[in-house]
């Protein structure tokens, strides 16, 4: 009798896109379908700062905010690597931190770019700007035009670090999920 062993490679997949493109909605649906997912952490960081009296940490102390995000996203990547699931989805990735810092024109330490080079995602799905579903709130302060600019910085940054971006078409949540699952 001959046994054939297949090595299953861990897929750590990032969903990215500017603000309000539907990433969190897709993550929530993937969770509902039983997939291992890690949520966006910037709202958590923002809400924690607001509890301490800093209304918009990203606007008031962008480097501190970005340091906190970078550390949180590195921890997410490490935890995802240890998950028993073969496929893990993450809402935003490590290069997002660099893209946002470039968007606002701030400098950042070298360990930001080192992190982008040292922690690599298996696949990257980008959601395009979609004005019809875009909403601002207390944690998302950007207007739609700014969201478009951020999208360009995200594309540029991820390509700089060697990623092939798979664009998810504007469609129903169900069809977007099917599109993503078909590509993995």
TrEMBL record:
Residues 13-176 form the NadR/Ttd14 AAA domain. This is Putative ATPase. It comes from Flavobacterium cutihirudinis. The lineage of its organism: Bacteria, Pseudomonadati, Bacteroidota, Flavobacteriia, Flavobacteriales.
